[in-house]
TrEMBL record:
EC number: 6.3.2.2
Top-rank taxon: Bacteria
Residue ranges occupied by any Glutamate--cysteine ligase domain in the UniProt entry: 10-381
GO cellular component, one term: cytosol
Biological or metabolic pathway of the protein: Sulfur metabolism; glutathione biosynthesis; glutathione from L-cysteine and L-glutamate: step 1/2
Keywords: ATP-binding, Glutathione biosynthesis, Ligase, Nucleotide-binding
Catalytic reactions on record: L-cysteine + L-glutamate + ATP = gamma-L-glutamyl-L-cysteine + ADP + phosphate + H(+)
Encoding gene (name): gshA
Homology family: Belongs to the glutamate--cysteine ligase type 1 family. Type 1 subfamily.
Pfam family, one: Glu_cys_ligase
Protein name: Glutamate--cysteine ligase
Keyword NADP: no
Length: 527
């Protein structure tokens, strides 16, 4: 353990400061496909009974009409966050007519690309903008890749923690810049160590054979309808996912916030030749928002993002540049198909200890070959993380995954103990012990359990996923919301539909002018 980490642990462990760690905030976004009773993609529109996908604060859609996204509020206790997520699932199931929420991250058997429905958000300009952005995604990456689902874990430390650390370290930056720098340092460490999360929580070693649409691949055939890799943890996060020659050269630097926002600004304002050749319109119909490397910032696919809550009409880069980093969004987590919510409290408790470790541990700038090693380690673990004797690269030297994982868990133990001292009990230590057992025995990992279940039941990927989806539906429907809770959701649905109707009534300029103004809001930024 480094001297800096020891000093920070000692400071936060003091009686006067210990309660601070009970004020971390946690939010979860869970994506999931709607499927029919046969496990095929539901081609029905987003259910009106769930409210407006544009304005409902907790139930929206991601890429497709069929791809639901559930969003919790940020809570100090992840148990409360998961309770919020469970309520959203129960309400959704009260409105799904003969449909199911698909249990894993990798999609169900998909129809032809042209039949996958892009999400619609109504006739307001912002609703149209979201639709055209998704048309651009289809054009650039295809619709199939957009049907992959995941879990995003949002995490922030209390605002009062940063001045405490800053003063103790004699740092002379402005408070805003210090806080941003510490979050960017967290992200650098996340890049160094997130391979561990893929080993522990990766849950997508298999996929439906039709997913690759005939593209060449190195996967093995498990059965007629299922492809897999024997030691894979997360094919979702492998190079089978988003392939983009445009984004290949885009490597936002996480050495400071300014370099990160600058590289994203360049990407959203620099034309890419292949997209420019297509243009933004065909026969007067919008094809994509612009011909730049990225249409908007969110098109950049990364495992973790620095975030700041935006004001109405404000873009993510603008918010970060104006007010700094407020929280991080960890985006690499698979949906665990054995869990009704796709995630549980044990995983959340470990994630808190892991993210706190990334925050407080030394985090030198990523220089030389380390940046590439981080990427290579991550990709190696998602494709063969359970391979016996697998080695990764650390400081330019080979190191066995199992040995490095145990060393990291030994360090994270200090953070789990600190969190337990802060909250009372031993839930973080217990969560860490569960992960240590997976390092000792790869058969305990979700990815190994998925393969074991398929082989035990003689099932294809789709048969397994549908069985799990049906079991989860029964779980949620067997314990409906109370009448008070149901009424609160019904009111939120009514309110969201009213808000969308109000947006669509508002007098506005034409859509072309709106898009031009949206684009100009970035181009005029001084970076």
């Amino acid at each position: 353990m480094s001297d800096l980490l020891s000093r920070r642990l000692a400071l936060l462990g003091e009686r006067a400061n210990l309660a601070l760690l009970t004020q971390c905030l946690h939010g979860i976004e869970r994506e999931c496909l709607r499927v029919d009773a046969h496990g095929q993609l539901a081609l029905t529109p987003h259910p009106a009974a769930l409210g407006s996908a544009l304005t409902h604060p907790q139930i929206t859609t991601d890429y497709s009409e069929s791809l639901l996204e559930f969003i919790t509020p940020a809570e100090p206790d992840p148990a409360a966050t998961l309770a919020d997520l469970e309520q959203i699932h129960r309400f959704a199931y009260s409105k799904l007519d003969g449909e199911y929420l698909w249990s894993p991250s990798m999609p169900c058997p998909l129809p032809e690309e042209e039949r996958i429905p892009i999400a619609r958000y109504g006739d307001s300009h912002i609703g149209q903008l979201k639709y055209v952005y998704r048309k651009g995604l289809a054009l650039r990456y295809g619709k199939t890749m957009q049907c992959i689902a995941g879990i995003h874990y949002n995490f922030s430390l209390p605002e009062a923690l940063w001045p405490l650390l800053q003063q103790a370290e004699g740092n002379t930056q402005s408070p805003r810049d210090y806080q941003s720098a510490r979050y960017i340092a967290l992200i650098r460490n996340f890049r160094r160590y997130s391979w561990l999360l893929m080993y522990l929580f990766g849950a997508s070693p298999t996929l439906d054979a039709g997913f690759l649409r005939g593209r060449p691949h190195q996967l093995k055939q498990l059965d007629e309808h299922t492809l897999y890799l024997p030691y894979a943890t997360s094919l979702r996060m492998s190079d089978l996912g988003y392939q983009s020659s445009a984004q290949a050269g885009l490597t936002p630097c996480y050495n400071d916030l300014a370099s990160y926002t600058h590289s994203l600004h360049q990407a959203v304002s620099t034309p890419y030749p292949a997209y420019a050749e297509i243009g933004t319109k065909q026969n007067g119909e919008w094809l994509q928002l612009n011909t730049n490397i990225l249409q908007i910032e969110n098109e950049y696919y990364s495992n973790i993002r620095p975030k700041r809550v935006t004001y109405s009409g404000e873009r993510p880069i603008q918010a970060l540049m104006a007010r700094g980093v407020q929280y991080v969004e960890a985006r690499c987590l698979d949906i665990n198909p054995f869990l009704p919510l796709g995630i549980d409290l044990t995983e959340a408790r470990f994630l808190d200890a892991f993210l706190l470790f990334c925050t407080l541990q030394d985090s030198p700038e990523l220089a030389g070959t380390e940046c590439r090693d981080c990427t290579d380690n991550f990709l190696k673990v998602v494709k063969e993380g359970r391979r016996p004797g697998l080695h990764l690269q650390r400081h330019g030297e080979p190191v066995e995954l199992q040995a490095w994982a145990h060393q990291l868990l030994d360090s994270i133990q200090q953070l789990a103990t600190l969190l337990d001292n802060s909250h009372g009990g031993d839930s973080h230590t217990q969560a860490l012990a569960a992960q240590r057992a997976k390092v000792d025995d790869p058969a305990l990992t979700p990815s190994a359990q998925v393969l074991a279940s398929l082989q035990e039941h003689g099932e294809s990927f789709t048969e397994f996923a549908l069985r799990q989806s049906q079991a989860h539906a029964e779980y949620f429907r067997s314990q409906p919301l109370s009448s008070t809770e149901q009424a609160a959701f019904e009111e939120s649905v009514r309110q969201s539909l009213a808000e969308q109707a109000e947006l669509e009534r508002a007098p506005v300029s034409d859509f072309d002018t709106f898009v031009a103004a949206y684009q100009a809001s970035i181009l005029t930024l001084a970076v």
